[in-house]
Amino acid sequence: MSVPTLTEAQTETLHRTYRHLHQHPELSMQEHRTAEFIENRLAELGVESFRCGGTGVVGVIRNGDGPVVAFRADTDGLPLQEDTALEYASTATGNLPDGTEVPVMHGCGHDTHIACLLSATEVLLSARDTWAGTLVLIFQPGEETAAGARAMVDDGLWDKAPVPEVVFGQHVMPVESGTLTYSVGDALAMSDSWKVTVRGKGGHGSQPQDCVDPIVLGAFMVTRIQSVVAREVDPRESAVVTVGSFHGGLKENIIPAATEFTLNVRSLDPATRDVVLGALRRIIMAEAQASGAPEEVIEELSHFPRTFNDPAATAEVVRGFEAEFGADRVVESAPLMGSEDFGALAEAIGVPSVFWMFGAHDRGVLDSQEPTPVNHSPFFAPVEEPTLSTGVRAATTAILSRLGN
Amino acid sequence: MSVPTLTEAQTETLHRTYRHLHQHPELSMQEHRTAEFIENRLAELGVESFRCGGTGVVGVIRNGDGPVVAFRADTDGLPLQEDTALEYASTATGNLPDGTEVPVMHGCGHDTHIACLLSATEVLLSARDTWAGTLVLIFQPGEETAAGARAMVDDGLWDKAPVPEVVFGQHVMPVESGTLTYSVGDALAMSDSWKVTVRGKGGHGSQPQDCVDPIVLGAFMVTRIQSVVAREVDPRESAVVTVGSFHGGLKENIIPAATEFTLNVRSLDPATRDVVLGALRRIIMAEAQASGAPEEVIEELSHFPRTFNDPAATAEVVRGFEAEFGADRVVESAPLMGSEDFGALAEAIGVPSVFWMFGAHDRGVLDSQEPTPVNHSPFFAPVEEPTLSTGVRAATTAILSRLGN
Amino acid sequence: MSVPTLTEAQTETLHRTYRHLHQHPELSMQEHRTAEFIENRLAELGVESFRCGGTGVVGVIRNGDGPVVAFRADTDGLPLQEDTALEYASTATGNLPDGTEVPVMHGCGHDTHIACLLSATEVLLSARDTWAGTLVLIFQPGEETAAGARAMVDDGLWDKAPVPEVVFGQHVMPVESGTLTYSVGDALAMSDSWKVTVRGKGGHGSQPQDCVDPIVLGAFMVTRIQSVVAREVDPRESAVVTVGSFHGGLKENIIPAATEFTLNVRSLDPATRDVVLGALRRIIMAEAQASGAPEEVIEELSHFPRTFNDPAATAEVVRGFEAEFGADRVVESAPLMGSEDFGALAEAIGVPSVFWMFGAHDRGVLDSQEPTPVNHSPFFAPVEEPTLSTGVRAATTAILSRLGN
Amino acid sequence: MSVPTLTEAQTETLHRTYRHLHQHPELSMQEHRTAEFIENRLAELGVESFRCGGTGVVGVIRNGDGPVVAFRADTDGLPLQEDTALEYASTATGNLPDGTEVPVMHGCGHDTHIACLLSATEVLLSARDTWAGTLVLIFQPGEETAAGARAMVDDGLWDKAPVPEVVFGQHVMPVESGTLTYSVGDALAMSDSWKVTVRGKGGHGSQPQDCVDPIVLGAFMVTRIQSVVAREVDPRESAVVTVGSFHGGLKENIIPAATEFTLNVRSLDPATRDVVLGALRRIIMAEAQASGAPEEVIEELSHFPRTFNDPAATAEVVRGFEAEFGADRVVESAPLMGSEDFGALAEAIGVPSVFWMFGAHDRGVLDSQEPTPVNHSPFFAPVEEPTLSTGVRAATTAILSRLGN
């Protein structure tokens, strides 16, 4: 297997594409112009494509007999005011589902994912004789809200596209540009978010006996919830329960009728997730009973699936990476507690998947006294090189590790 | 002592005044037009007056040698959308201190207080020969925010006005119109309100170990606070601690840097108040330490003083009431847990005070299956008669009980 | 009505009786020798008597036509090592229900109650012509455990004895000897005690995920219980919930299978009692559910009924006291949060009752820098005079206030 | 390297030794007869020995030039009534530090550790030509209380014995007899135990306002402690905090003056341990302040150090095991949350150590529907073979992997 290098023109296109995308981010499930941009670029490259899941785009390249491999790039930006001072910084705005207009930024680096996959496509097309098989390009919307992978699967992704034997994906991260990191087995945490409406009975603060105080009840729920990770999770397993918001009441002497809080659960192991979610539901229900409160309402806000790197498939990809980049640029790491909806794509058809990280920052940024700008920061600005070419080479290498001659 | 009756013309003026005031409520400490209205009416009656504490108005009537008595009526409305269907319902608006425009309503019945005191003044002036002494009329702004009595005292009320030997005041209440109620000793609760800013250290919900979670901390504060009334207050004393609002965090998976809650304390006994406030401060400080959190900030929002009815002065007033209304219309009651800043006026000069309630509703309203509209309800609409004439007669009676021949 | 005075001989008998009783205390429901002593003394006085409720003794004196009045004295001692240095201090021992041998002391002063009632009987018998009616003398066992009044009623007390129109009782207290105190209406608190067995699932401390931790569960119950008095009881009502013991676990790294705690509730108002007991049961059950624990067991340990002084009957007795002792020796007080089972006697037949306190200490003891020895203290030693003669006079006065000519 | 096999006579001695030890267990730091037994056996084998740390015994075998290796076997039994039905079951008793007489059992299998090390010594002595160097045999008392390793080190173990370049140890476990398990890096958890005396101010349950309730305070400490593992420990690290006992109060209506609880902390990573212990101390101190309580006392009961398997040394041992037993009988496992004081021996001199497990049960026991008897169970009865010969072979193999020709 030999991985083709980017030509000067290909490199120039890569950077132009990246800057264009960076300047035109769109909110989750609203990536209309981004989808059109991708469709146009695929058409230029002679790749047939179709829409799937609204603003998702799927390209299919058939190059003779051979395995089918899928590669996913996510496409959405974030409701964030970019503060990077880049000349191609975003000034875009968008509208949240409730209609609020907000600034939009590619603050999680999905623009690099799109640009690198389009560039890898160009490279592979220009070297058709070095590989054989079918490549499915998945430009997935709505990763940030866990809506996009689900939307594509629900829209019949795997009925419309050839079913692959493995799904690849990658993410830019605040580690050293030019390096790759990966985990074997669990790679990222599952994430589940709930909104809990704590219902009580309001009234005047001087007459608590006529009320059911939902702030006291909510506080008991929050304190009780601490026991879940502390006592119900195997200490050798990983789980986090964060109550990220708690809102109730308008005035110090009026007991409100209800309050609400949101929580987020991170877990690596599905059995642990079941334990935690079950315990949370049990505690929330029982605490409402302890207050003699009306039944509270638990609303599921989002679920990010497991990101699990199949050990055999990962080993194959890593061997390719080590050959291409040198073993010292390819680092195994513990699973991260962050989350992704990438896993839902392979899970839907029961095939293995591999997901890795490529670095965003040069050493100067990483070694600085200043806090390193991380994903979702208004200051997150991957250095263009070697970040982008590393993303292209990693994608090409992974694909060729399966499809290469 | 004989209490003059209202003439037909006086009654007509009383009702016109009341309806005008009801239609033109103003927010606390912004009672500009109300103050002008009162000043004009006092001038019409030939009573000298001066401003005090911004929108407070003080009238002084000197009627020969005799004791000095003060009578207070509070003048502010509430940020409430009136929903009474009265033909003279308010459509007024006002601006909260933060600039927000809100509807305004005389939802606590202070319009009856003003109208009754102006009418009692008219009655007493028309019967100057039945009494002797000095009457100080205090039209006090900002009762709802506990700001007005303080503002008048701070503005030199008792330097500018004759110092009375007793201060009277009254309040309309959702009991039967035509009846009066009173307590001996404690009449209303003290009230103290705080805003507590719970400071933590924010971060991502998947990395709680790098954060100090202010929602968990705040929840522990709220649960811990329950032990104050339960364990530190003498069970035979009365105290309430209500956490009326709790707000922190924007997103389920982001640990905020801070959260804030407000609380209100009700107590009847000053020693109990000290116990409760001391325990709250101790717990809040210690819980912050338990979390390793930065020092939280406790801001005092308001303090309503004790409303204490001097037993001897109260007995004198009650004797007058019983003679005027009949003993069955004058009912002793347990102290109420509501609050007033009336007490600050007498407290500032160390003289006794007496505060009573007069009824607002006819029996039909009180006996109805529907919830009785109480003060601060958008539906609070005292029946005009006998409510207003009872307020006038009660005021006149109380004043004459001290100043009458 | 004129109250006979004690003769020298009667006084001598009174003191001898008291010292004998003080030296021979017995534990609750084991007052065998005390009962015999009382029976013998009644026989000496020519009063017919019968046993009721095991170690209870009832004497009946019929003295012509007239009302029936009952007077109760309780008879049990406490498992306490007397430390009074009195020459007639107790060295008695007894056996707790579980068989443990313990020292016994009349640490609550029931010996004064017996001696005074026997002496009052003697006085009244010697002045039969000054009164008419029937007097029922109730020497009740087991007050300390709330078992005795119940046992006598269950054993048919009111079938066997004439049914009185009022029941009287008195208690010695650490206030000034020679004075009496009383309350109108509520006099003492109701008391309810529970034992709660918190069931979990034990195991090794390193594997909490396989256990249900009953110590964590019990701790959540205790903290949650704080909200009952704080939020569910009208602040103007009185209630206390004390968790007096909590025991579980043997070793720091073994999670026990169960833990247990006991609690005691004090309340004055039956509706408040219902609120508190209902809330406790609700919270305990719901917290077990919140832990996914097996159902816990609540065992009722004891119930002390309301001690309510009928206002009219109390007024009659107080008028007698004031005439006999002077108004300055008869003091009205707020209800005490202590408890008694006296109320169960009158409650069983729906008649009024009156219960008052007589002082135990001279001013030197009360004004001393040392802590005043209170009931249940190993140092509780009422000064003999005027304590005992006051108790006799108070009993005689109360009885004659109803039966006297 | 070739590992000598046990002769028939050696096997017979091994079993006889084991049964004798099993029948004569002694409590921690009281292993007097066990120490004598070991000394006698070493003397029979011609091995010089000395006492160290009271009941510890150290044997030294010098066999020419070569590395120094130490091997530790722990020697104490448990206060447990044996219930195994073995013909050689223990009927021994002993006295706890407080004097209580208790039954004693080798319920943790330390008898197998002693027997196997003595047998391995015999085997190695009979094959002196196959190895060279110095072997230090450490028969350590008091493992169960974390006192023994510390006592030996404090008594100058490494001044008196040759300093080894590696320390080995092994433990019998309820896995399949004939198999070995090991971890690389962290092998067992650190363990720290505290006793916390929660001081309050006692009094009558009806007057909580005069008390500082130590049961409520302790309950708040226990609930607050749940947040340590939940919010302060990196979710990818392992930690457990168990409050294993909580005791306070004698009677439901008396608030005790103090209560006490014990807790145990398990952790793998020293930094995590610091975080947890620091947080516990901070919370306990601050909660006492929140109650206005006197300063509580934290007493450290025990500390079990890290059991860390040096990766290189472990790899060497495992290679030996795999050669001797076959790779399928040698299984890598995740670290266990149990604890050992073995690590303190190597830690004191900064040399690597390796600790592994050997199986106790045959498949019939493991596959049974009945719960598997684990260490510290009254039913823990390792099957004699192949358990004992496996322990001997594992010890011999590990030693020869370093000292063998």
UniProtKB/TrEMBL annotation, chains A, B, C, D:
<dbReference type="Pfam" id="PF01546">
    <property type="entry name" value="Peptidase_M20"/>
</dbReference>
<feature type="binding site">
    <location>
        <position position="144"/>
    </location>
    <ligand>
        <name>Mn(2+)</name>
    </ligand>
</feature>
<dbReference type="InterPro" id="IPR036264">
    <property type="entry name" value="Bact_exopeptidase_dim_dom"/>
</dbReference>
<keyword id="KW-0378">Hydrolase</keyword>
<feature type="binding site">
    <location>
        <position position="171"/>
    </location>
    <ligand>
        <name>Mn(2+)</name>
    </ligand>
</feature>
<dbReference type="Pfam" id="PF07687">
    <property type="entry name" value="M20_dimer"/>
</dbReference>
<feature type="binding site">
    <location>
        <position position="376"/>
    </location>
    <ligand>
        <name>Mn(2+)</name>
    </ligand>
</feature>
<keyword id="KW-0464">Manganese</keyword>
<dbReference type="GO" id="GO:0019877">
    <property type="term" value="P:diaminopimelate biosynthetic process"/>
</dbReference>
<protein>
    <submittedName>
        <fullName>Amidohydrolase</fullName>
    </submittedName>
</protein>
<feature type="domain" description="Peptidase M20 dimerisation">
    <location>
        <begin position="192"/>
        <end position="288"/>
    </location>
</feature>
<keyword id="KW-0479">Metal-binding</keyword>
<dbReference type="InterPro" id="IPR017439">
    <property type="entry name" value="Amidohydrolase"/>
</dbReference>
<dbReference type="GO" id="GO:0050118">
    <property type="term" value="F:N-acetyldiaminopimelate deacetylase activity"/>
</dbReference>
<dbReference type="InterPro" id="IPR011650">
    <property type="entry name" value="Peptidase_M20_dimer"/>
</dbReference>
<feature type="binding site">
    <location>
        <position position="110"/>
    </location>
    <ligand>
        <name>Mn(2+)</name>
    </ligand>
</feature>
<dbReference type="InterPro" id="IPR002933">
    <property type="entry name" value="Peptidase_M20"/>
</dbReference>
<dbReference type="GO" id="GO:0046872">
    <property type="term" value="F:metal ion binding"/>
</dbReference>
<feature type="binding site">
    <location>
        <position position="108"/>
    </location>
    <ligand>
        <name>Mn(2+)</name>
    </ligand>
</feature>
